[in-house]
Amino acid sequence: MADRKAALFRKQVLIVDDDPINRQMLGYIVETGYDVLYAENGREALGLLQRLARQISLVLLDLVMPEMDGKTLMARMRQEEALQHIPIIVLTSEVDAEVECLKQGASDFIKKPYDMPEVIIARINRTIELAEDRRIIQTVETDDLTGLYHKDFFFEYASTMDIRHPGMKMDAVVVDLDHFHLYNEMHGRAAGDQALQCLGQAIGAVLADTVGIGCRCEADTFFIYCAHREDYPEVQQRLGKALESLGEGVPHLRMGVCTRTDLAQDLVKRFDRARAACNRVRGDYRRAISFYDENLYQHDIYAQRLVNEMSEGIRQGQFQVYYQPKYNVRGRTPVLHSAEALIRWIHPEMGMISPGVFIPLFEQNGMIRELDRFVWRETARQIARWREKFGVLLPVSVNVSRIDLFDEDLLGELTRLREEFDLPQGSQLLEITESSYTANMEQALTVIRALRANGFPIEMDDFGSGYSSLNMLLHMPLDALKVDGAFMRSIRREDAWLIRTMADIARHLGVPTIFEGVEEESQVQMIREIGGDIIQGYYFSKPLPPEQFEMRMTTDLKRQAEEERKAEETHADTAGAE
Fold this sequence. Notes:
Layout: H1 2-8, E1 12-16, H2 20-30, E2 35-39, H3 42-51, E3 56-62, H4 70-79, E4 88-92, H5 97-104, E5 108-111, H6 117-141, H7 151-164, E6 170-177, H8 180-187, H9 189-207, E7 212-216, E8 221-227, H10 232-244, E9 253-258, H11 267-279, E10 289-291, H12 294-315, E11 319-328, E12 335-347, E13 351-353, H13 355-365, H14 368-390, E14 396-399, H15 402-405, H16 410-420, E15 428-433, H17 441-453, E16 458-463, H18 469-473, E17 480-483, H19 485-489, H20 496-509, E18 513-516, H21 521-529, E19 534-536, H22 546-577
Parallel strand pairs: 1-2, 1-3, 3-4, 4-5, 9-10, 12-14, 14-15, 15-16, 16-17, 17-18, 18-19
Antiparallel strand pairs: 6-8, 6-9, 7-8, 11-12, 11-19, 12-13
Helix pairs in contact: 3-4, 8-9, 9-10
């Protein structure tokens, strides 16, 4: 059985020689390890090769033959793509022919007469193995779709370029496509592949003009490493026009460039800088190219410091949870309804660090998970403290990031916190933005349904800020709809119809509407007129540390208790009069 299997996988070698005695002698040697085909001249050999290109592993080729000699056959094989991979060992007794044959693509030589069979078989084995290894490397080193290198090979070859040309000024370039996943969804995977292929070919054409290499790093992200040049705006336009040739609606192309990179610096870091420049123009249709500069460098240094110091900052108590109240405005007098937990970083050297700086940074590198869990625990502790101190349960909403949403133990962690602080269901509200679940809607919806089923109400945050909010409403189970604060700050009296529509949508879904970012009396009046439910914003209060929030809570509870007392007295007087 083993012999039959070995015979099934024996490789084929083609011997091309017009001398029958030489053919037979060489064939006798080769047959010990390979199946042998024979041809008397180059023309006959070419016909066999064209028919059996995928089956022939090696050609043993004589140079001097009638009809078509060996040199002509080599030239023809190098011209035909299907034959270029087949290695050639030249059979010759002419020492002068070796250099010329090597230039034409010969892999090795076997000298006549064939008086050393072991050496011949060793040369054949080595040549076939090297050719097969080369084919395997060529298969895995390049992306089938674009023809550019894969990431690992790209960095290996780029590093080699640095070593061999230490004095050359090199540029790191990142090319990306905005909302490529949407293009795939709208036009189909085939159209997306065509766009990537088109861009890959355009990058290859650009590289043909200079010293450099390119790769497809991720789905729609490309890297270029090339000798320094000054015409990147023209390069960007050239790549953009290549995409535009596919028709309307193609993704917007953006480019980040880190020029004259420091070869002493880690290569990956150089491309991180180019990516940072590229990300600076994400979604900006007025600009398509950005260069890494000193401002970005200082920003990177600052961002890295924040990353390095976050965990220690949590341990040292630098992070504090602030609370911003939400008021129910459906009645005549606003009533404290709930609050939102908002994280603040009070750094001992840098002072108050804006959440708008560190939250996106931690979301990007995954550290938001640690920070969110700190907020959840502090919030649960605070809810329990207020219940004990004031005798009332004030629900507090906490943010759930995209990373949290795809954590398999999310429900378990929140449930354990609730049990640890003996909190009832509904005491912690979960704010989830549409961007947290658009990446994988089905999985996100499964998690959200499980959270709601276990007593964690869901608030859709930042409604009105994204392109897919209305679509999400068709699928996402909700307990409240929260209108984006930036949207509210830009609203005018004549735009009241728009927020009325949002309130109507919430009423149709059977959930309250929360308007955040409310700062002016006119906004409050407008929200009351259209039947809005809950208001959060500086009009009532800025986010407060726990101690100040407790003072406000004390005042609100006393006022509400007094109003309830007066209402009861009024009701009693009215009943007595009747």
